[in-house]
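Request: When convenient, would you put together a sequence paired with its C-alpha cells?
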Amino acid sequence: MKQTKWQRLATIGLCSSLVINAFSGVTAVAETITIESSPTVASSAKEATSASSATPESTESSQETTETSREEVTQETEKPEVVEKISDDKEKTVISDYLNKGAKTIPEINKISPKATYNFPKVNYQFGFVDEAGNLMNPAPFSILFDYARGDRTTVPVKWTVISANEKATDSADNLKNMVVPAVSLAQPAGGAIYSVPSNFRLTIPKYYSSISIYNSDGKINPKYPVPIVKQYDSGVINNWIDEFHALNLTKDEAGYYKMYDTSVDGHGYPLLMQRYVTPPGKISHNVYTYFSGPVYYHLINRKVTENFVDDNGTKITPPTGFTQGNKIPMTSNTFKYTAAKALPATYTAGGKTYTFQGWYKGKTKPNTLTTSTTPTYNTTFDGNDDMTAMYKEEVPKASVALTRTTAETVTSGGNVTWRATITNTSQAPLTTATIKKSTAWTTGLAAPTAMIVTPAGGTAKTVPVTATTWTNGVSLGTDIPVGKSATVQFTTKATGTAGQVLRAGITTSGNYSGVSASATVRVKDNDQVIVTPTAEGFISVPTFNFGQVGVAGSTQQHSLKKAADYYGNGTRNPYLRIKKTQPNWSLTAQLSQPKSATDSLPTTTRLLLGTAAAASFTDYNQPTETKTPLGKTGTVNLTADNTATAVVANQQFTGSDVYQLDFTFANIKLEVPANQGMSGQQYQAAVTWNLVTGP
C-alpha cells in the first residue's frame, strides 16, 4: 500500500479554511493588488506538487494576526503510477506582470494598506469525460451544478448567503465541460475572512455508467489525459500543490451525485480546490484563489450486461458455439435494452458433454420459473441486476438394448443361431464409443461369434471382426448413435446342448453411456416334439401318437405306441402337451377324428386311450433357470373317433402359473380298434384336436 501525505488546516477560532504552501518560508504581501484576468493555464504536468493549509485567526484593532498552526494527517490510498515530475516546475513563483498588472516587486511585509479591495478574476474549471476506449466524449449527457455562495466570517457563526443557485456548467466545442466562477471583488474585513466560492458541487453522470475516476480502467493516469497541476494564488505568490490532486477524485453521496473533496467552514462545504477568500490585513494577510493548469479528465466505466452459462446446479459450463462465458455487453444509453446477439440453441455439445436448454433469467437470483424464449431480451434497470444467465441441463447419455433371435426357438445341438441386438439412444445426448460384449449371463453352450454386422440407423452395414479377447472385453462398433436413433448388431453363434436344454445369449453394451444388458434364449430340440412360441397364449407343443404297424384281428384289439427304442427319446420320455395361457380361468378339451387311409376308414367307435396325465407347471419358462413343479393328475382321458369333445382339464383345476404341461404315460397310451376293421397294407391317420379355452 502506497501512502499519500495530506496537509490539513488546524482550525482555530471561527474555523477558516485556507491552504498555503507547506514548504514556503516567505509570505509576500502587497499593499494593493488588482487582478483583472483569468490565470494562464499551464502546460500539462507530469506530477502534481503538495500544499498545506492554514487558517487565519481574526485580528483585533492592531490588525495583527497570528500565524495558524498546522497539523499533518496521513491518509492511505491506493495510488497508481503517476507521470514524472516536471523538471523545471517551481514550487513557488512570484506572480507575473500578467497577473499582477504592473507590480514589479513584492513589498515589504510591514507595508500594509488596511482594508484593501481585491478583484478576483473569472476562473474556468474545465472537465473532460473519457470512455473506456480512451476517447474524449461529448459532455452533453453529463451535468455539473453548483451554487455560488458568499461567506462572511466577521460574524459568529459564519453567515453564508447563496448568491445564485443551481448554476450549470456549459459544453464547449472541444468536448469539455466549462464550470465558470465569475470575477468578484472582495474587500478585506477588519477581522475573520470573506469567502466567495462555488459550493454544493454536484456532478451527475448517465446511469449506464458504473463509476467515474481520474484513473483509467487499469488504475493509472493516462498520459494522454494528465491530471492538471492545482495552482494556488496567495497574495502575489503562485504555489503548485503536491498530491492534492487526489482531491479531484469524486465520491458519490446518498443523493446519487458525485462530489469533489469538500472543506467546510462552520458546516458549509465547498470544493477544497475551488476556494476563494480574503483575510484581514496584518503580518499574515491573504487573498487566495485556486485554479487548474488544465482540464480535469474523468474516466468512465460502462455498466455491463454479463452473459453467464450454467448447469442446473448453477455451475458455469462451456457455452454454445458463438457465445462466450462471462461476455460483457456495455450499456450505452439510459434506455439500454439487452438482446442476445443470436438465439440460444435448444441443445449443444461441448467438451464431450451435451446440454439442453432450460431457460434464462435476469439478475443475480434464479427465479422459480425460468423464461424459455430462446433469444433473451429485456430492459435494463442499472441496479446491478442486469446480467443474463442461461441455464442448461447436462444430459446423461442413456441407451436401451434389446436382443432377439432371428432363427427358430429350437435348434439341433451343434446348429447355428443368429441374434440381433438393437441399441437405441434414449437420451438427449449422442451415444459415442459404443462397444458390445458377452455378459455374465452368456451360456457356455454358445460359442463366441467370429464377426458382427453393424448397421447404423439409416447408414450402411459394415462387418466388424470378433475375437475371443474382444468378445470378452468389448467389440468396438465404430459408430455413433444420434439422439432418437438406433443401431443394430447381428451375429451368429453355434449352439450345443442336451435335448430340451435352454441356452442363454447375454450381451452388454456401453460407451459414453452406462452399460445396459439384454438376453435371449434358444432351446435344444428333443428330436421328437416340435416346440413353438405362442405370442400370448396357446399350444407350445403337442404330442404325436405313432402306433406303427398293427394287424387286422377278429376281435377288438388295443395297440401300443411304436416301440420305445424308436420313439420319444429312446423310451426315456413320455409324450406331453404344453400350453401357455394368460387368464386365470382356463380349461382344456380334446377330440379325435375318424382314422382314414387312402381307400378305407376305421369305424367311429375306434378309440384313443390316453389314461391319466401328470400335470406340472413351470416357473422361469424358457430360461436356463426354468423349474418344473408337479401339480397332480388329470382324470382318465379316452377319445372316441367321432370328434366328440372330451374334457381333459376343468376350469381352475390347476392354477398358479402361465405355462402347464401334461405328461401322458408312454405305456398307458393305446389305440383301440374294433374287430375285423382295417385293410392290410393301408396307413390310417386321424387328428387329435386340443381345445384351450380361456377367459373369465
Summary: The chain has four domains: 3-301, 303-395, 399-524, 538-694.
